[in-house]
Amino acid sequence: MTDPPAAPRDSLLHVEDLRTRFHTDAGTVTAVDGISFDLDDGETVCLVGESGSGKTVAAESLTRLIDDPPGEIVSGTVRFDGRDLATASEAELRAVRGDRIAHVFQNPQRALNPVYSVGWQLLEAIQLHDDVSKADARARAIDLLDRVGIPDPATRIDDYPHELSGGMQQRVAIAMALAGEPDLLVADEPTTALDVTIQSQVLRLLESIQSASGLGLLLVTHDLGVVAEVADRVVVMYDGTVMERGSVHDVFERPSHPYTRALLDAIPGRDVDLTPTAARDVADRDPSSATDSTTGCRFRSRCPHAVDACREGDQPPLHPTPDATTSAPDGARAHVAACVHFGPDGDPDVVVDSAKSADSGASADESAGGDRR
Ligand SMILES: Nc1ncnc2c1ncn2[C@@H]1O[C@H](COP(=O)(O)OP(=O)(O)OP(=O)(O)O)[C@@H](O)[C@H]1O
Ligand code: NI
Protein backbone atom coordinates (compact mmCIF):
# COMPACT_ATOMS: atom_id res chain seq x y z
CA MET A 1 0.00 0.00 0.00
CA THR A 2 1.29 3.40 -0.84
CA ASP A 3 0.57 6.57 1.03
CA PRO A 4 -2.00 8.88 -0.48
CA PRO A 5 -0.10 11.01 -2.97
CA ALA A 6 0.97 14.55 -2.26
CA ALA A 7 -0.99 15.05 0.94
CA PRO A 8 0.41 18.42 2.02
CA ARG A 9 2.32 18.26 5.26
CA ASP A 10 0.49 20.10 7.95
CA SER A 11 2.26 23.34 8.58
CA LEU A 12 1.14 25.77 11.25
CA LEU A 13 0.38 28.17 8.41
CA HIS A 14 -0.11 27.19 4.81
CA VAL A 15 -0.72 30.00 2.36
CA GLU A 16 -1.60 29.08 -1.17
CA ASP A 17 -2.29 31.29 -4.14
CA LEU A 18 -3.38 34.21 -1.99
CA ARG A 19 -4.56 37.16 -4.03
CA THR A 20 -5.58 40.58 -2.73
CA ARG A 21 -6.73 43.53 -4.81
CA PHE A 22 -7.52 47.15 -4.23
CA HIS A 23 -10.17 48.93 -6.20
CA THR A 24 -8.97 52.47 -6.77
CA ASP A 25 -10.03 55.36 -8.97
CA ALA A 26 -7.09 54.58 -11.24
CA GLY A 27 -8.12 50.96 -11.63
CA THR A 28 -7.60 47.66 -9.94
CA VAL A 29 -4.30 47.02 -8.23
CA THR A 30 -3.46 43.42 -7.47
CA ALA A 31 -1.17 44.05 -4.52
CA VAL A 32 -0.72 40.36 -3.74
CA ASP A 33 -0.96 38.18 -6.80
CA GLY A 34 -1.08 34.53 -5.92
CA ILE A 35 1.57 34.01 -3.27
CA SER A 36 2.26 30.71 -1.52
CA PHE A 37 4.41 29.82 1.46
CA ASP A 38 4.42 27.71 4.60
CA LEU A 39 5.43 28.36 8.17
CA ASP A 40 5.97 25.67 10.78
CA ASP A 41 5.69 25.75 14.54
CA GLY A 42 8.66 27.52 16.03
CA GLU A 43 9.87 28.74 12.68
CA THR A 44 10.83 32.26 11.63
CA VAL A 45 9.93 33.09 8.07
CA CYS A 46 10.95 36.47 6.71
CA LEU A 47 8.99 38.20 4.00
CA VAL A 48 11.35 40.51 2.14
CA GLY A 49 11.16 42.76 -0.87
CA GLU A 50 11.31 46.39 -1.67
CA SER A 51 8.72 48.98 -0.84
CA GLY A 52 5.38 48.33 -2.51
CA SER A 53 6.06 44.67 -3.20
CA GLY A 54 3.01 43.66 -1.18
CA LYS A 55 4.52 42.46 2.08
CA THR A 56 2.14 44.34 4.35
CA VAL A 57 -0.90 43.50 2.28
CA ALA A 58 0.14 39.84 2.37
CA ALA A 59 0.67 39.86 6.14
CA GLU A 60 -2.63 41.61 6.76
CA SER A 61 -4.55 39.41 4.36
CA LEU A 62 -3.80 36.38 6.51
CA THR A 63 -6.30 37.37 9.17
CA ARG A 64 -8.25 39.67 6.84
CA LEU A 65 -7.18 42.91 8.42
CA ILE A 66 -7.49 44.49 4.98
CA ASP A 67 -10.25 47.08 4.68
CA ASP A 68 -12.89 45.83 2.29
CA PRO A 69 -13.53 48.10 0.39
CA PRO A 70 -11.19 49.25 -1.08
CA GLY A 71 -9.38 45.95 -0.52
CA GLU A 72 -10.63 42.55 -1.54
CA ILE A 73 -9.14 39.16 -0.88
CA VAL A 74 -10.02 37.59 -4.16
CA SER A 75 -8.84 34.04 -3.74
CA GLY A 76 -6.49 31.71 -2.00
CA THR A 77 -6.14 29.47 0.97
CA VAL A 78 -4.85 30.50 4.38
CA ARG A 79 -4.85 27.28 6.31
CA PHE A 80 -3.94 27.84 9.90
CA ASP A 81 -3.77 24.87 12.18
CA GLY A 82 -6.12 22.94 9.96
CA ARG A 83 -8.78 25.53 9.16
CA ASP A 84 -9.05 27.91 6.25
CA LEU A 85 -9.08 31.49 7.43
CA ALA A 86 -9.83 32.73 3.92
CA THR A 87 -13.33 31.31 4.18
CA ALA A 88 -13.80 31.58 7.96
CA SER A 89 -16.64 33.65 9.33
CA GLU A 90 -15.92 37.02 10.90
CA ALA A 91 -16.65 35.50 14.33
CA GLU A 92 -14.20 32.66 13.76
CA LEU A 93 -11.61 35.15 12.59
CA ARG A 94 -12.08 37.32 15.64
CA ALA A 95 -11.39 34.28 17.78
CA VAL A 96 -8.19 33.60 15.90
CA ARG A 97 -6.94 37.17 15.74
CA GLY A 98 -5.05 38.23 18.79
CA ASP A 99 -5.52 34.84 20.33
CA ARG A 100 -3.95 32.29 18.02
CA ILE A 101 -2.41 34.78 15.60
CA ALA A 102 -1.18 38.10 16.95
CA HIS A 103 0.06 41.05 14.93
CA VAL A 104 2.79 43.48 15.82
CA PHE A 105 2.74 46.56 13.64
CA GLN A 106 5.39 49.02 12.57
CA ASN A 107 3.78 51.71 14.65
CA PRO A 108 3.12 50.54 18.24
CA GLN A 109 0.39 53.12 18.58
CA ARG A 110 -1.75 51.03 16.28
CA ALA A 111 -1.95 48.40 19.03
CA LEU A 112 -2.33 50.77 21.97
CA ASN A 113 -5.28 52.87 22.96
CA PRO A 114 -4.11 56.27 24.23
CA VAL A 115 -6.96 56.72 26.68
CA TYR A 116 -6.35 53.59 28.74
CA SER A 117 -3.39 52.67 30.89
CA VAL A 118 -1.05 49.96 29.70
CA GLY A 119 -2.24 47.73 32.51
CA TRP A 120 -5.90 48.18 31.69
CA GLN A 121 -5.27 47.15 28.09
CA LEU A 122 -3.10 44.21 29.03
CA LEU A 123 -5.61 42.98 31.59
CA GLU A 124 -8.35 43.17 29.00
CA ALA A 125 -6.27 41.16 26.53
CA ILE A 126 -5.44 38.55 29.17
CA GLN A 127 -9.00 38.22 30.41
CA LEU A 128 -10.31 37.97 26.89
CA HIS A 129 -8.06 34.99 26.42
CA ASP A 130 -8.42 33.33 29.80
CA ASP A 131 -11.03 33.29 32.50
CA VAL A 132 -8.80 34.53 35.31
CA SER A 133 -9.39 36.86 38.23
CA LYS A 134 -8.37 40.48 37.97
CA ALA A 135 -5.60 39.93 40.49
CA ASP A 136 -4.24 36.98 38.54
CA ALA A 137 -4.50 38.91 35.28
CA ARG A 138 -2.60 41.80 36.81
CA ALA A 139 0.13 39.51 38.04
CA ARG A 140 0.35 38.01 34.59
CA ALA A 141 0.44 41.44 32.98
CA ILE A 142 3.34 42.47 35.19
CA ASP A 143 5.09 39.26 34.28
CA LEU A 144 4.53 39.95 30.58
CA LEU A 145 5.92 43.47 30.91
CA ASP A 146 8.89 41.99 32.66
CA ARG A 147 9.38 39.45 29.89
CA VAL A 148 9.45 42.15 27.23
CA GLY A 149 12.05 44.07 29.19
CA ILE A 150 10.05 46.89 30.74
CA PRO A 151 11.97 47.97 33.83
CA ASP A 152 10.02 48.23 37.08
CA PRO A 153 6.91 46.66 35.50
CA ALA A 154 4.83 46.78 38.69
CA THR A 155 4.97 50.58 38.48
CA ARG A 156 5.00 51.06 34.71
CA ILE A 157 1.85 48.98 34.35
CA ASP A 158 -0.14 52.03 35.40
CA ASP A 159 1.45 54.29 32.80
CA TYR A 160 -0.43 55.55 29.80
CA PRO A 161 1.08 54.86 26.37
CA HIS A 162 2.19 58.49 25.90
CA GLU A 163 4.29 58.25 29.05
CA LEU A 164 6.48 55.63 27.37
CA SER A 165 9.18 56.01 24.73
CA GLY A 166 8.62 54.53 21.28
CA GLY A 167 10.80 51.55 22.09
CA MET A 168 8.92 50.92 25.34
CA GLN A 169 5.60 51.31 23.52
CA GLN A 170 6.67 48.64 21.04
CA ARG A 171 7.65 46.38 23.94
CA VAL A 172 4.18 46.90 25.41
CA ALA A 173 2.63 46.18 22.01
CA ILE A 174 4.60 42.94 21.93
CA ALA A 175 3.40 42.13 25.45
CA MET A 176 -0.16 42.75 24.25
CA ALA A 177 0.45 40.40 21.34
CA LEU A 178 1.75 37.75 23.71
CA ALA A 179 -1.15 38.15 26.16
CA GLY A 180 -3.27 35.71 24.19
CA GLU A 181 -0.44 33.18 24.05
CA PRO A 182 -0.51 33.06 20.26
CA ASP A 183 0.90 30.28 18.12
CA LEU A 184 1.88 32.72 15.41
CA LEU A 185 3.21 36.23 15.64
CA VAL A 186 3.01 38.35 12.51
CA ALA A 187 5.39 41.28 12.88
CA ASP A 188 5.41 43.88 10.11
CA GLU A 189 8.57 46.01 10.23
CA PRO A 190 8.32 46.04 14.02
CA THR A 191 11.50 48.06 14.48
CA THR A 192 11.36 50.48 11.57
CA ALA A 193 9.67 53.27 13.51
CA LEU A 194 12.11 53.03 16.40
CA ASP A 195 15.44 54.68 17.12
CA VAL A 196 18.31 52.78 15.57
CA THR A 197 19.74 52.06 19.01
CA ILE A 198 16.49 50.43 20.10
CA GLN A 199 15.88 48.47 16.91
CA SER A 200 18.25 45.62 17.61
CA GLN A 201 17.04 45.34 21.21
CA VAL A 202 13.45 44.89 20.10
CA LEU A 203 14.51 42.46 17.42
CA ARG A 204 16.52 40.43 19.89
CA LEU A 205 13.51 40.46 22.17
CA LEU A 206 11.30 39.01 19.43
CA GLU A 207 13.93 36.42 18.69
CA SER A 208 14.24 35.35 22.31
CA ILE A 209 10.46 35.18 22.74
CA GLN A 210 10.22 33.12 19.59
CA SER A 211 12.82 30.62 20.71
CA ALA A 212 11.59 30.50 24.32
CA SER A 213 7.94 29.94 23.54
CA GLY A 214 8.32 28.10 20.24
CA LEU A 215 5.80 30.25 18.44
CA GLY A 216 5.94 30.78 14.73
CA LEU A 217 7.15 34.18 13.60
CA LEU A 218 6.35 35.77 10.29
CA LEU A 219 8.59 38.79 10.08
CA VAL A 220 8.11 41.39 7.39
CA THR A 221 11.25 43.38 6.86
CA HIS A 222 13.23 45.22 4.23
CA ASP A 223 16.40 44.79 6.26
CA LEU A 224 18.39 41.88 4.87
CA GLY A 225 20.81 42.07 7.78
CA VAL A 226 17.91 41.22 10.06
CA VAL A 227 16.87 38.40 7.77
CA ALA A 228 20.33 36.86 7.85
CA GLU A 229 20.24 37.01 11.62
CA VAL A 230 16.81 35.65 12.47
CA ALA A 231 15.21 33.83 9.53
CA ASP A 232 14.91 30.11 9.10
CA ARG A 233 13.34 30.60 5.72
CA VAL A 234 12.90 33.51 3.36
CA VAL A 235 10.15 34.52 0.97
CA VAL A 236 11.29 37.14 -1.54
CA MET A 237 8.47 39.22 -2.98
CA TYR A 238 8.47 41.51 -5.96
CA ASP A 239 5.44 43.29 -7.34
CA GLY A 240 2.96 41.11 -5.49
CA THR A 241 4.49 37.77 -6.34
CA VAL A 242 6.97 35.39 -4.79
CA MET A 243 10.20 35.51 -6.79
CA GLU A 244 12.18 33.14 -4.64
CA ARG A 245 11.66 31.03 -1.58
CA GLY A 246 13.94 28.82 0.44
CA SER A 247 15.98 28.38 3.57
CA VAL A 248 17.92 31.44 4.61
CA HIS A 249 21.08 29.51 3.86
CA ASP A 250 20.06 28.68 0.31
CA VAL A 251 18.69 32.10 -0.49
CA PHE A 252 21.71 33.94 0.87
CA GLU A 253 24.40 31.52 -0.27
CA ARG A 254 22.84 30.64 -3.60
CA PRO A 255 20.48 33.42 -4.54
CA SER A 256 18.84 32.28 -7.75
CA HIS A 257 16.27 34.69 -9.07
CA PRO A 258 17.97 37.66 -10.72
CA TYR A 259 15.88 39.90 -8.48
CA THR A 260 17.19 38.25 -5.32
CA ARG A 261 20.70 38.45 -6.70
CA ALA A 262 20.23 42.14 -7.39
CA LEU A 263 18.95 42.66 -3.86
CA LEU A 264 21.91 40.88 -2.31
CA ASP A 265 24.44 42.38 -4.71
CA ALA A 266 23.37 45.85 -3.76
CA ILE A 267 24.66 45.14 -0.32
CA PRO A 268 28.28 45.46 0.55
CA GLY A 269 27.92 44.93 4.31
CA ARG A 270 25.36 43.37 6.56
CA ASP A 271 23.28 46.39 7.48
CA VAL A 272 21.14 46.39 4.45
CA ASP A 273 18.27 48.65 3.77
CA LEU A 274 16.20 48.26 0.67
CA THR A 275 14.73 51.72 0.89
CA PRO A 276 17.05 53.39 -1.63
CA THR A 277 16.40 50.64 -4.18
CA ALA A 278 12.74 50.92 -3.43
CA ALA A 279 12.71 54.63 -4.03
CA ARG A 280 14.50 54.14 -7.34
CA ASP A 281 12.15 51.39 -8.33
CA VAL A 282 9.06 53.43 -7.72
CA ALA A 283 10.59 56.30 -9.70
CA ASP A 284 11.50 53.96 -12.55
CA ARG A 285 8.18 52.35 -12.75
CA ASP A 286 5.81 53.04 -15.54
CA PRO A 287 2.74 54.34 -13.72
CA SER A 288 0.49 52.22 -15.90
CA SER A 289 2.19 49.15 -14.46
CA ALA A 290 0.71 50.02 -11.09
CA THR A 291 -2.55 48.61 -12.32
CA ASP A 292 -2.89 45.15 -13.74
CA SER A 293 -1.47 44.95 -17.23
CA THR A 294 1.71 42.95 -16.94
CA THR A 295 2.76 40.24 -19.33
CA GLY A 296 5.71 38.00 -18.67
CA CYS A 297 8.03 38.28 -15.74
CA ARG A 298 7.48 41.38 -13.65
CA PHE A 299 11.20 41.84 -13.21
CA ARG A 300 12.04 41.58 -16.91
CA SER A 301 12.65 45.27 -17.58
CA ARG A 302 15.24 45.45 -14.80
CA CYS A 303 16.68 42.00 -15.36
CA PRO A 304 20.16 41.61 -16.87
CA HIS A 305 19.26 38.09 -18.04
CA ALA A 306 15.92 38.76 -19.70
CA VAL A 307 15.25 36.82 -22.88
CA ASP A 308 12.25 36.66 -25.20
CA ALA A 309 10.55 34.01 -23.06
CA CYS A 310 10.52 36.48 -20.15
CA ARG A 311 8.22 38.82 -22.05
CA GLU A 312 5.52 36.27 -22.74
CA GLY A 313 2.69 34.76 -20.78
CA ASP A 314 2.37 35.01 -17.03
CA GLN A 315 4.93 35.34 -14.31
CA PRO A 316 6.93 32.09 -14.49
CA PRO A 317 5.96 29.62 -11.77
CA LEU A 318 8.35 28.73 -8.96
CA HIS A 319 10.87 26.24 -10.32
CA PRO A 320 13.21 24.17 -8.14
CA THR A 321 16.76 25.46 -8.20
CA PRO A 322 19.41 22.86 -9.06
CA ASP A 323 21.75 23.46 -6.16
CA ALA A 324 19.40 23.66 -3.21
CA THR A 325 20.63 21.94 -0.09
CA THR A 326 17.14 21.76 1.33
CA SER A 327 15.23 20.78 -1.77
CA ALA A 328 13.14 17.93 -0.53
CA PRO A 329 10.20 16.28 -2.22
CA ASP A 330 8.14 18.56 -0.01
CA GLY A 331 7.65 21.56 -2.26
CA ALA A 332 6.96 23.99 0.55
CA ARG A 333 10.48 23.59 1.84
CA ALA A 334 12.33 23.51 -1.44
CA HIS A 335 14.50 26.28 -2.79
CA VAL A 336 12.54 27.66 -5.71
CA ALA A 337 12.73 30.65 -8.05
CA ALA A 338 10.14 32.14 -10.39
CA CYS A 339 12.45 32.53 -13.37
CA VAL A 340 12.39 30.94 -16.84
CA HIS A 341 16.09 30.14 -16.57
CA PHE A 342 15.22 27.61 -13.84
CA GLY A 343 12.35 26.14 -15.81
CA PRO A 344 12.38 22.97 -17.90
CA ASP A 345 13.60 24.84 -21.00
CA GLY A 346 15.96 27.11 -19.14
CA ASP A 347 19.61 27.04 -18.20
CA PRO A 348 20.29 28.23 -14.65
CA ASP A 349 23.90 28.89 -15.60
CA VAL A 350 22.71 31.91 -17.55
CA VAL A 351 22.00 33.49 -14.19
CA VAL A 352 24.36 31.68 -11.86
CA ASP A 353 27.54 31.63 -13.95
CA SER A 354 27.52 35.36 -14.44
CA ALA A 355 28.06 35.70 -10.72
CA LYS A 356 30.71 32.98 -10.55
CA SER A 357 32.92 34.90 -12.89
CA ALA A 358 32.24 38.08 -10.95
CA ASP A 359 33.48 36.73 -7.62
CA SER A 360 35.91 34.13 -8.89
CA GLY A 361 37.36 31.93 -6.22
CA ALA A 362 35.19 33.02 -3.35
CA SER A 363 32.39 30.57 -4.08
CA ALA A 364 34.75 27.84 -5.27
CA ASP A 365 35.96 27.57 -1.70
CA GLU A 366 33.61 24.78 -0.70
CA SER A 367 34.15 22.49 -3.64
CA ALA A 368 37.90 23.01 -3.65
CA GLY A 369 38.04 21.59 -0.16
CA GLY A 370 38.91 24.80 1.58
CA ASP A 371 41.63 26.53 -0.33
CA ARG A 372 41.72 29.32 2.20
CA ARG A 373 44.41 31.88 2.60
N1 LIG B 1 -5.52 50.88 0.70
C1 LIG B 1 -4.89 50.73 -0.47
N2 LIG B 1 -5.45 51.20 -1.60
C2 LIG B 1 -4.83 51.04 -2.80
N3 LIG B 1 -3.66 50.42 -2.96
C3 LIG B 1 -3.06 49.94 -1.87
C4 LIG B 1 -3.64 50.06 -0.56
N4 LIG B 1 -2.82 49.47 0.33
C5 LIG B 1 -1.77 49.01 -0.38
N5 LIG B 1 -1.91 49.29 -1.69
C6 LIG B 1 -0.98 48.96 -2.78
O1 LIG B 1 -0.56 47.63 -2.62
C7 LIG B 1 0.80 47.51 -3.02
C8 LIG B 1 1.57 46.78 -1.94
O2 LIG B 1 1.66 47.60 -0.78
P1 LIG B 1 2.29 47.09 0.58
O3 LIG B 1 2.04 48.12 1.59
O4 LIG B 1 1.84 45.72 0.89
O5 LIG B 1 3.85 47.05 0.22
P2 LIG B 1 5.05 46.71 1.20
O6 LIG B 1 5.85 45.64 0.53
O7 LIG B 1 4.56 46.42 2.56
O8 LIG B 1 5.89 48.05 1.16
P3 LIG B 1 6.70 48.81 2.34
O9 LIG B 1 8.05 48.12 2.41
O10 LIG B 1 6.81 50.21 1.86
O11 LIG B 1 5.93 48.68 3.60
C9 LIG B 1 1.29 48.90 -3.31
O12 LIG B 1 1.29 49.08 -4.70
C10 LIG B 1 0.29 49.78 -2.67
O13 LIG B 1 0.17 50.99 -3.34
NI1 NI C 1 4.77 47.32 4.36
TrEMBL record:
EC number from the UniProt entry: 7.2.2.11
Predominant cellular place of this UniProt entry's protein: membrane
Entry's Gene Ontology cellular component terms: plasma membrane
Broad EC category: translocase
TM region positions: none
Catalysed conversion reaction: Ni(2+)(out) + ATP + H2O = Ni(2+)(in) + ADP + phosphate + H(+)
Biased composition (Low complexity): 343-367
Chain spans, region Disordered: 278-373
Keyword Translocase: yes
Localization annotation: Cell membrane
Keywords: ATP-binding, Cell membrane, Ion transport, Membrane, Nucleotide-binding, Translocase, Transport
GO biological process annotation, one example: peptide transport
Alphabetized Pfam families for the sequence: ABC_tran (PF00005), oligo_HPY (PF08352)
CDD domains named among the record's database cross-references: ABC_NikE_OppD_transporters (cd03257)
GO molecular function terms attached to this record: ABC-type nickel transporter activity; ATP binding; ATP hydrolysis activity
Every ABC transporter domain range: 13-264
Subunit structure: The complex is composed of two ATP-binding proteins (NikD and NikE), two transmembrane proteins (NikB and NikC) and a solute-binding protein (NikA).
NCBIfam families (UniProt xref): oligo_HPY
Protein name: Nickel import system ATP-binding protein NikD
